[in-house]
């Protein structure tokens, strides 16, 4: 298992971390072999999705130390729920192999689905996987905070897997640089669920939950605030600065009520999008006022390190 300095620095002092990392390394070859065997089977779409669920169940029980009794299948519409001592920790929504990897829009749609199921069960973390990629995030103050993005087709186990282990799930993850377009893609694969008839869409903006920087309640579109992404998950360059201004000032008198305790998380999300566009002042000295104010806002809250835009 390749070393990860960030994780080692944060958790290397924990005996449980060191022991779990060793077990992950030992169990990975067997898991990888079983995964390949399952994926080589020619299955119908429904059977392929079930095979992906079996792969994820293998991952959590044989690699990440979750007891089989704590990996709950088909819990109130959720594909998999991880629990500890009866306390539900994470909802995992599984799609058929190859349907999510490097398909950002499909990932976002599936995350929306997972967030709705998590909200129904009062669960504070969500994950999505197609048995090749696995992405997990914590839901904090109405905002997704990245927990881990790992590829399951690697020769060596990804270090970030520990954050999804039976011990690591309790820990606050370090700042992560997550690229939802990472990993191989078979362009011949049709995307399952490309049209999700059951998905909630905001009645005004005609967009799904993932397009909003703040989501008060996953099942109530009235609480979805500050649209900043297009429906396909790409950044809406027109709405992003407006969303920032609604927090740091008042965009055209807009009265967007975001809980004070959520404003920092929301601004980290918006500033991260601005960073992707290279709009922050440490990247572009001629940038617009909204981006300068976002940078200052995060600097005052000592949250710039979460964005990773500069070393101030």
A few lines on this structure:
The protein has 312 residues and is of the alpha+beta class. The chain has helices spanning 5-11, 15-39, 45-63, 104-120, 239-248, 263-276, 289-300, 304-307; strands spanning 71-75, 78-84, 87-94, 125-129, 133-140, 143-151, 212-215, 224-227.
Write down the overall mean pLDDT: 87
**How helical, in percent, are the residues?**
25-40%
Main pleated-sheet profile: 6 strands, mixed
Please tally the helical runs, counting DSSP H or I stretches of 4 or more residues.
8
Q: How are the strands ordered across the major sheet?
A: 1-2-3-4-5-6
Termini Cα gap = 32 Å
Give the beta-strand count. Answer: 8
| CATH class designation of the largest domain | Alpha Beta
> What is the CATH architecture descriptor of the largest domain?
Alpha-Beta Complex
Give the total of domains.
2
Class derived from helix and strand content = alpha+beta
The radius of gyration is 20 Å
Order of helices and strands: HHHEEEHEEEEEHHHH
Poorly predicted regions are 186-195
In percent, how much strand structure appears in the residues? 15-25%
CATH topology of the largest domain: tt1808, chain A
- Principal-axis shape equals globular
Short key terms for the protein model shown above:
312 residues; 8 strands; single chain; 2 domains; alpha+beta; two-stranded antiparallel ribbon; 8 helices; 6-stranded mixed beta sheet; 16% strand; tt1808, chain A
């Amino acid at each position: 298992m390749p070393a990860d300095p960030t994780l080692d620095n944060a958790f290397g002092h924990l005996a449980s971390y060191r022991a779990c990392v060793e077990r992950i390394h030992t169990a990975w070859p067997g898991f990888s072999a079983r995964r390949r065997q399952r994926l080589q089977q020619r299955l119908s779409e429904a059977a392929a999705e079930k095979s992906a669920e079996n792969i994820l169940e293998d991952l959590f029980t044989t690699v990440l130390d979750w007891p089989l009794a704590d990996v709950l299948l088909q819990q109130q519409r959720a594909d998999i729920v991880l629990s500890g001592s009866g306390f539900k920790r994470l909802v995992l929504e599984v799609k058929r192999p190859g349907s999510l990897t490097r398909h950002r829009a499909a990932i976002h749609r599936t995350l929306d689905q997972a967030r709705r199921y998590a909200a129904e069960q009062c669960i504070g973390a969500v994950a999505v996987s197609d048995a090749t990629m696995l992405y997990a995030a914590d839901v904090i103050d109405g905002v997704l905070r990245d927990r881990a993005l790992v590829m399951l087709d690697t020769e060596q186990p990804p270090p970030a897997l520990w954050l999804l282990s039976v011990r690591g799930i309790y820990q606050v993850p370090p700042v992560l640089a997550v690229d939802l377009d990472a990993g191989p893609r078979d362009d011949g694969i049709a995307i399952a669920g490309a049209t999700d008839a059951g998905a909630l869409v905001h009645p005004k903006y005609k967009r799904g939950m993932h397009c909003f920087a703040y989501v008060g309640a996953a099942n109530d579109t009235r609480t979805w605030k500050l649209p900043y992404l297009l429906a396909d998950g790409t950044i809406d360059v027109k709405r992003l600065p407006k969303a920032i201004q609604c927090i740091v000032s008042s965009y055209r008198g807009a009265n967007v009520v975001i809980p004070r305790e959520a404003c920092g998380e929301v601004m980290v999300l918006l500033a991260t999008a601005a960073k992707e566009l290279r709009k922050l002042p440490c990247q572009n000295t001629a940038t617009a006022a909204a981006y300068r104010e976002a940078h200052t806002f995060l600097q005052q809250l000592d949250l710039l390190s979460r964005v990773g835009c500069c070393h101030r």
